[in-house]
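Appendix B, Record 12. Input sequence as logged:
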Amino acid sequence: MDTSDVNSICTFTLKEKIYAQFTFNAGVLTGAYGLFLNNTILGISYLLYSYIGILLLMRFTVCPRCPHLHVANDCVQLHPSITKIIVSPKRKGPLNMFENILFIMVLYGILILPIYWIYSNTVIFVLFLIFYGGQLLGLHLHFCRECQNHSCIQNRNKNLKSES
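Logged structural output:
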């Protein structure tokens, strides 16, 4: 993340955006393919769950409260102009219980749901873990440590001043 001006909200580098998008999409598509090999309906359902789930997260959880988007006009997920169309402008303050549960169910559901069906296919299973596991590791070890979103339950930024 570019933090050249310490008084402003940091922005994401092109490398970070490519990493985030590639690992997420490659993970979801690998999981969906593995499920599709077992059952077409499962594969399609997983794709719908993953992408509709992410759209719900973007609309109702952290994106409406994101200073990267609203102050710095930057987004790691999509182009900021597209993200601003998706997000709900009325969401403020900390996440409520429903939003926290939704966040956890989508983010970790994408990881957990396909495992039972793809475990027997070693190549797909390992690729899925590398891609989506890489997505989650990237979030926890890099993005969440630099994030300036006060509302996100994943925020690990120790330098973030509390919101007044």
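DSSP finds seven helices and no strands in the chain.
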